[in-house]
């Protein structure tokens, strides 16, 4: 079957950084679904895993952790899906990725594709929806039924993939007042259309901008871009007993002591935790994606597809990685069809 993989970890402008390959079609076992992949989405994690390092792979490594497609076969322990079902999912970082014609994924982290979306628009959602949902509702404890309505959340990186769905979840389900960061007119427009009440520029003084808006402090902060840069500002603006959650690993020590006087909480969110450790509650991600699909079909949430870059091949995938590394993408980048 066709796939895109790598042998060496190279700069994305090197044509060998991602290459078109042929690999054997896998077989479903246990709780696995074998999915015929129709569309994929690209995330910062893809570029980070592919980033240059002194390492080689004896057999091609296939990346990709966002996909939508059709169930082609099921393992003997599968109970949630059947052959022919349209699905969407993010997969596991500990297994081969979805940049291939057929892909194995555990049914417990898979959702049924929203009926109102085609495969391309559905592929834009899983990883970011799981991340934003877990960060907001599981880590920070915001009520998805709106019981915390009226409280304020600062979303750093509002026009990115996670920010794009995070704004919607915070606004539509959490009923929060949403302040999102964006640095360009087009990204500010995108975040506003998704429901942000206010926009601030993350390259400028965030505390000063919030003060000018009349929100000197906020109840929650979601850091979806550059923890090292933005944690000091988050610590400065978080309310006493508020909460900060980040999804971006730090490169320097985080000064969590800044939160002590406020008794403020600090959380990490990593959507691969359940699949990586095989936690007993893995099926919660199936339930989560099922609910996201329902909310999409009900018109409560919308897809976050920003641009479809064309067919699934190495050239287009290298282009997507380059766009992510440049930090210029708005919403999600999707490829569809082999």
UniProtKB/TrEMBL annotation:
Residues 13-335 form the Enoyl reductase (ER) domain. NCBIfam families: adh_fam_1. This is Zinc-type alcohol dehydrogenase-like protein. InterPro entries: ADH-like_N, ADH_Zn_typ-1, ER, GroES-like_sf, NAD(P)-bd_dom_sf, Zinc-ADH_QOR/CCCR. Keywords: Metal-binding, NADP, Oxidoreductase, Zinc. SUPFAM superfamilies: GroES-like, NAD(P)-binding Rossmann-fold domains. It comes from the Bacteria. Transmembrane segments: none annotated. One of its GO terms (molecular function) is oxidoreductase activity. Belongs to the zinc-containing alcohol dehydrogenase family. Quinone oxidoreductase subfamily. Gene3D superfamilies: Medium-chain alcohol dehydrogenases, catalytic domain (3.90.180.10), NAD(P)-binding Rossmann-like Domain (3.40.50.720).
